[in-house]
Design brief:
- This is DnaJ-like chaperone fused to ferredoxin.
- This protein has 203 residues and is mainly α.
- The chain has helices at residues 8-29, 32-38, 43-49, 53-72, 80-91, 98-112, 118-145, 153-173, 178-195.
- The chain folds into 2 domains: 1-53, Arc Repressor Mutant, subunit A, CATH 1.10.10.60; 75-200, Tetracycline Repressor, domain 2 (Orthogonal Bundle).
- 27% of the residues are buried.
- The mean pLDDT is 92.
Length: 203
């Protein structure tokens, strides 16, 4: 059984327990049992809703993506350039906390399984589509406003997101959170040198 039919409080409690388990144990060692250990309601309730780890984690990814989509809608920026940077910083937060970095490591472990788990792949594909659409829309607004050059908005979005994805992969693989800050600087330099209209370049 998936999260369909659960009340909001139960869903939130299960998702929070899943987050804590992933932070504490990483993807490989997270199981229904370790999630149940973090669940502040009865273990039987968790087992009633989910039969296995993959089913629960697929719902967890869906829940995360719904939160990300809502979060991106709250971005308020003075101009499209700042909007693009705000989207990037939602994905690559500067001064990332230890817990969130551990979670990113677990999330990368889940992404590595996407070729083998259809439910994971579906959610990661949905995530990529959402993020690329948000970046593309922001770049197109920048072109329309004269903030950006007449670039290919889709290509810019693809390049920026590929850099974000590569930064996350390298930082968690090498256990180097400082790499995130470095790649944020690289993205900003790319935007200013290749995308921003020189006559409207931010100071």
């Amino acid at each position: 059984m998936s999260e369909t039919g659960q009340d909001d409080d139960t869903t939130a409690a299960i998702m929070e327990a899943t987050y804590r388990a992933l932070c504490d144990h990483g993807y490989p060692d997270t199981s229904i049992s370790t999630i149940a250990d973090e669940f502040d309601k009865s273990r039987s309730l968790l087992y009633y809703h989910y039969e296995n780890k993959d089913e629960l984690l697929a719902d967890f990814l869906r829940y995360l993506l719904d939160q990300l989509e809502a979060d991106l809608q709250t971005i308020e920026a003075d101009d499209p350039y700042e909007e693009v940077l705000a989207i990037v910083e939602r994905l690559l937060p500067p001064d990332i906390e230890s817990e969130r970095f551990r979670f990113y490591r677990a999330l990368f472990g889940m992404r590595s399984q996407a070729p083998y788990v259809d439910a994971y792949r579906e959610q990661f594909a949905r995530s990529d589509t959402l993020i690329l659409a948000e970046l593309t829309d922001a770049v197109e607004r920048g072109i329309d406003a004269g903030t950006f050059q007449l670039v290919d908005a889709d290509e810019v979005a693809q390049f920026v997101y590929a850099t974000v994805s590569g930064a996350l992969q390298r930082s968690v693989t090498l256990d180097d959170p400082e790499m995130i800050e470095h790649h944020l600087t690289l993205i900003e330099s790319y935007l200013q040198s290749q995308v921003v209209d020189r006559e409207d370049e931010p100071s």
